[in-house]
TrEMBL record:
This is Arylacetamide deacetylase-like 4. The lineage of its organism: Eukaryota, Metazoa, Chordata, Craniata, Vertebrata. GO terms for molecular function: sterol ester esterase activity; triacylglycerol lipase activity. It holds the Pfam family Abhydrolase_3. Gene3D superfamilies: alpha/beta hydrolase. One of its GO terms (cellular component) is cytosol. It comes from the Eukaryota. Residues 94-165 form the Alpha/beta hydrolase fold-3 domain. GO terms for biological process: triglyceride catabolic process.
Length: 194
């Protein structure tokens, strides 16, 4: 049996105006600034483009229209959005687009993959954490998978945060959420192998 298990994944680097990116911008271990710095370094994007990427100004209006059905905050349940949530997209910056256009590649942003590709993926176990800037990325990926008929098991950790999983055996820094995530993954793997 094949399955994909994704723990607090980053599945798109197009929309940093999602509610969790804005509302959880200063949580410990993965602040928004640290996250965008890691992304820029990983994708070999000059750090001078960070602010342009955060406002979405490096994405053309045509690209926003094309990918809206997958990256729009409208696809996120109201429970995960505050009433005061207001995304603020910046004006298109062509120079930034030319430097960062590879963020639209589905190998970098798998959420942007065509529906036909998504429909061929194996069942998924997705973990999201309440105190994680990437929480909404997981919810968007979940919706894209489900919309294409891919079975999804979703485990949301109310007291979890990005990176908590790596602390599951690091006493005294282990948190109950770490062990809970590990147990949920083990139980899922057992359930699909039997």
């Amino acid at each position: 049996m094949q399955a994909q298990v994704l723990i607090t994944p980053i599945v798109q680097v197009l929309n940093f105006q999602l509610p969790s990116h804005l509302q959880k911008r200063n949580v410990p271990f993965l602040t928004r600034d640290l996250m965008i710095s890691f992304i820029c370094k990983y994708l070999d994007i000059d750090l001078s483009w960070k602010d342009v990427m955060l406002t979405g100004a490096c994405v053309s209006l045509n690209a926003w229209k094309k990918y809206k059905k997958w990256v729009s905050s409208d696809n996120i349940p109201q429970k995960f959005r505050s009433k005061s949530f207001q995304p603020k997209l910046g004006p298109f910056n062509e120079a930034a687009y030319l430097e960062t256009k590879h963020i639209l590649d589905e190998k970098i942003s798998p959420l942007l993959a065509d529906d036909k590709i998504i429909a061929q993926l194996p069942q998924a176990f997705l973990v999201s954490c309440e105190n994680d800037p990437l929480c909404n990325d997981t919810l968007l990926y979940k919706k894209h998978l489900e919309d294409q008929g891919v079975p999804v098991t979703w485990y949301h950790v109310e007291d979890g945060f990005h990176g908590c999983m790596v602390l599951f055996d690091k006493q005294p820094f282990s948190f109950p959420c770490s062990r809970n995530i590990l147990n949920a993954i083990i139980n899922y793997m057992k359930s699909i192998s039997s």
